[in-house]
Amino acid sequence: MDKFKTVLNIANKQTNLGFGLVALLTAGGEQIFSSAVFKCPCNEMNFLYGMVFLLVPALALLLLGYILSKKTWKLLTGLCQRRAELCRWKTLVATGVALFQISTTALVAPSSWIAVALLNGEYFQCLMTGTNASVLNAHLCADKSSQAHCEMYVYRLPCGTVGSVPQADREDVLIKLRAESQILGWLLIAFIMLSNLMVTCLARCASPISYLQLKFWRAYAQEENDLINSFTAKHAKQLAERNLKSFFNQTPPEPLTTPSNKDWEKISSLYKFSTRDQYYSTLHRYVENCQETDSRMMRMSSATSGEATNTPAVLDFVDDARIAL
């Protein structure tokens, strides 16, 4: 799991490269899985067995994609505490857009699994010989006196032991099934690539910023993510050391400023770039607006001859921790 996370972290630095690496790893895993684990039972369980091997690993990869996505947990954390906000139309739209973005990334691995499995053809051959399809029966059993007995041979086609069915007929059926499977696999690959191209073109066409600024935004987001991990680890270590010293020495704790729950909430929401404010993240927006709010409060304080206010500057934050559109 740690190795897989490392690969994903490297891949996330370059979106197209990341998709390619995930697809390549999935394809390699499918080849190993089909050769080492898959073995068609060649009985009434053919259809169920083939469907399970074709779809269940894809479902597991889809769930793993959601689990390993930081956006998933950034979106879901505390969501039940913000039920009133979910009823707002703009918040619902923003949540839907975020889920769509998460899903497009999470679908790379499962779609790659299904496509490679269809190109391989073994799963499709197994499940199709378990459907008792009329086309197969008509091809193999049309001239047989006992059609019901002949239909039992259809289950045995992937294993090679088909009794009185001629070897040439068996090969014809398996070649046809493999061809159908590969056609479906290539159609799925073409659909995935076409959909990805259309979504990318639509997103770039509707982009409010230029190509170079978009590259700068991605570079900033990556640098901020790396730095926030090191800063939080360092601050957490300082806080833990301070608390342990205070506990073992039985002395009052040294002063150490830590962001409040409200502060953490405001920099933890998903953010979309706005040309009006031109902030590159929720942290950027938080810092800039805190400075503006502090300056505004100082001007108001001097204008009112030192009147005090009970409202902290942080509460005037833009968007009030809601998902920005």
From TrEMBL:
Membrane topology, from the record: Multi-pass membrane protein
Source species taxonomy: Eukaryota, Metazoa, Chordata, Craniata, Vertebrata
Chief localisation class: membrane
Organism per entry: Seriola dumerili
One Pfam family it belongs to: Ca_hom_mod
Regions crossing the membrane: 49-68, 89-109, 183-206
Transmembrane found in the keyword field: yes
Family: Belongs to the CALHM family.
Signal sequence, renumbered to the chain: none
Protein name per its UniProtKB record: Calcium homeostasis modulator family member 6
GO cellular component terms, semicolon-separated: plasma membrane
Places the protein is found: Membrane
Keyword Transmembrane helix attributed: yes
GO molecular function: monoatomic cation channel activity
Biological processes per GO annotation: ATP export
Lineage: superkingdom: Eukaryota
Alphabetically ordered keywords of this record: Ion channel, Ion transport, Membrane, Transmembrane, Transmembrane helix, Transport
